[in-house]
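Sequence and structure are kept together here, with a separate record for every protein. An example record follows, reproduced without changes.
>
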Amino acid sequence: YIKYGMTQEFMGRFPVLVRLNALTEDEICRILSEPKNSVVKQYERLVNCIGAELVFEDSLLKKVAKNAIKTGTGARGLKTVIEGLLENVIYELPDKTDVKKVIIHEKMFDNEPAKYIYEGSEISFDTNSNANETKNEPKSKPVSPTPPASESFKI
C-alpha cells in the first residue's frame, strides 16, 4: 500500500488481525515437554539439583493437556497446573535425602501423593502402564501422605 501513496505511519495504525486455531492435546503435550526450557525440563533440572530424578508419566501430561483445553487456558496455564501438582514434592524432597526418583502420575489430580523410590529399593516402573513391581520391599520405605494442615501446625 505504500506504493499507492499511503505513508508508513498511516499503515501502522491499521489493526492487525490474526486468527489462530486452538491447540490440540498432542500439541500441548509437546509444549510441556519438547522445548529446551519447557516446564517439565525446568522441574526435572530443579529436582536433579536436589539429588533425585523427576519422572513425568505420559498419562499425566495428557491429563494436563485435557485440563488446559477444558478450561480454555491453552498453553498459558500449563506452568500453574504443573506447579500446583509439584508443590508438596518441592517442599518435601529436600528433607528426604534417600529418595532417588520421584514419579509424577495422573492420580495426583485426585490429591494422591507422588510416588517416591528410595535408595536401595529395586522397583521397576513402566510409565506407559501403572504397574509397579517391588522386588525388594524391606529396603524401601513406605510413602506416608502429607498430614492435613491442622495436624502439621499444632501448638
Summary: Residues 124-155 have pLDDT under 50 and may be disordered. The longest strand covers residues 99-104. The first helix runs from residue 8 to 12.
